[in-house]
Amino acid sequence: MRKLPSALIPLCLSVTCILCMEATAADPRNLRNGHVIPDEGYCDQPYTVVTADGNWLCTLTTGPGKEGNRGQHVAATISSDRGRTWSKLIDIEPTDGPEASWAMPLVVPGGRVYVFYVYNGEDVRTWQGRPIRADTLGWYVYKFSDDHGRTWSKDRYRLPMRQSAVDRTNTFGGKWQIFWGIGKPIVAGDAAVFAFARCGKHLIDNSEGWFFRSGNVLHETDPAKIRWQLLPDGDVGLKSPEFGAVQAEQNVVALRPSQPAALPDSSLYCMYRTVTGYPCHSYSRDGGRTWTKPEHATYTPGGRKMKNPRACPRIWRAGNGKFLFWFHNHSGKDYRHRNPAWIAGGVQRDDKIHWSQPEILLYDPDLNVGPSYPDLIEQDGRYWITETQKTVARVHEIDPTLLEGLWRQGTVKKMTTRGLAATFQAGDTTTVEIAMPALSDLSEGGGFSIDFRIALADLTAGQEIFSSRDDSGKGIALTTAEGGAVRIELSDGKQTAGWNCDAGLLRPNTSHHVAVIVDGGPKIITFVVDGRLCDGGTASLAAGGTARQYGWGRFPKELGNVNGAKTARIMPSSKGNPGLRHLRIYDRYLRTSEAVANWRIGDTG
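The structure corresponding to this sequence follows.
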C-alpha cells in the first residue's frame, strides 16, 4: 500500500509517527490484539459461519503470492474455541489448479455447508497475447461439505449465469464473464440470496450488482435439483448512471415484515461501494426481482449522507433483527485510508433502516494498514468481527454494550457518569475557574472528553471557552473558530495538536451541545455537536462551502501528558452572552452513543 498523502493527515505527523509499532495492550479495538486466522501469505475475505457442531468454519481466499497471482485458491479452517486457535488450512480447491477466489459460505438447516466462489474454469492465462490476472474470470461455482467443513465434495457445480449487456460489451467481447462477490448468502423467508458484481471492464470496472436466489437450496440435498434465479429481471443489473462506472461489492440483508404486514417476507436491503465518496443503497420488495433506484446511503431517509471511499461497505442483520454497518467515514474516492473502521447500528422503522451515529470499531497504530472485507459472527449473545489487511486476517470479540449503544441511540436519554471527573454548572456567575483533574497520558492510550452546552450571542473566532493551559502553554484550550465552529488545542509542552468541529454548526443566540472526544487509542479527536458526529459535511466547495473529506482529526503518537494548570478557566457569562450552561470533564474517551445520550437530556442536563 502506498504511503498516506499529507492531505489526509490533518496534523503534522512524521514518518516515525505513521509507522508506530506500539499497540495499546488493553484496547480490544487495536487490530493487533485480535487472534490470527491462518493463511499461505496472501489472505482475503475471511468469512465465517457457525456450523451445526458448534464450531466455527472460516472460508478464505489465500495463496503464496500477492493478490491475483497464480496459486490463489479457496480454503477453509476450523476453530473449536471461538477464534482463539484454528486448524490447518483445508483446501476447497488446490493451489496448483486454476484460480479459485472470493468464497462465500452458507450453512443450511440440515447442517450441510455450501461455499460459492469464482473459478477460472477455462484456465484463462492471456488475452491478445498478454498475460492477464484471472481471479475474476470464469464460472460461478459451489461445492458442499457434509462434515462441517472438514472435507468437500469432489465435484463442483456451476451456477447458471446467463449473459447480459455488461458481458456482451465487456473487455473480452463476452468470451468470458468478469465478476466477483463479497459477503455471505443470507436467508430471506424460505430462500437463500447472495449478491455479487458483474463487470464490463477488466479487472473490476464498469460494474453493477446482481443476485442469485434459490428457493430450495435450504432443504434440497441433491445438488442437481437445486434451482437458481439470476436477478434482477432484465438485461441490466443494479446501478444508477449518475454514480459512475464503479458500483460494486453489493451485499444484502433481509428486512422483517412490518406490522401490520405491509412489508413482504421477501424484502431486501442492499448496500454497495462507489467512487463518489459515498456508498449507495437500494430496497427490493420482491426478493431481488426489482429494486428501488439506487441512492447515496443516508443515516435516515432523506437525511445526511454516509461517507465511504472505494472500500467494502459491509452490512449485517443481527440475531435480534437489528442491523450493523461497517464503513470508513470519509469521502475519499480510491482504495486507500481504511483505518480506522467505523460501525453504525441500524433499526428498522416501518420499511426503512435508520442508522445511528457511528463509533470507531477497529484501528491499527500503523496508518498504512487498512482492515477490510469484514464478517460478523454471533453466538450465545456474543459478537466477533473478522477482517483482513491482505497479508494477515484476524478475529476480534466486540463488546456487546458498544453495539447495544448504537441500536439504542435514538431512545437513551441519560447523563453518562462513568469517568466523570469534574463539572461546572451555570448559576454562580462568579465562578470562572474549576479544579482540573489529572488526565491520563495520551501516548500510552489514555483519553479524555469535554462535554458542554453553550449559547453565544457573538460567534467571533478566538473566544476562550475553556483553558487549562499553564504559563508555558501546556494543557488544553477550547475556543470559538471561524465559520461557527469550536476548536480544541492540546500541548504536552513539546508536541501540539488541534482540530475544529465542522463549520457552520454553531448559530448565534442558540443553545448547542458539544462533546469533544480525545481518544489515545487510535489517536483521533472527534466532535459530537447536537447529537451528530462531525463527518466533514457535504457542502459544495464549488459553491463556497466548507466541506471536508472527514470530520475527525488525528494527533501525533508522541503527544503525551497534556495536564497543564491545576485549575481551568471557564468562559464567564455576560449580559447578552450567557456563555457556558454546563461543562463536564471525563477522564476517558466517551463513546459516540454516550455523547448523544448526554445531548438528549436537553438544556436541563
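Residues 1-24 have pLDDT under 50 and may be disordered.
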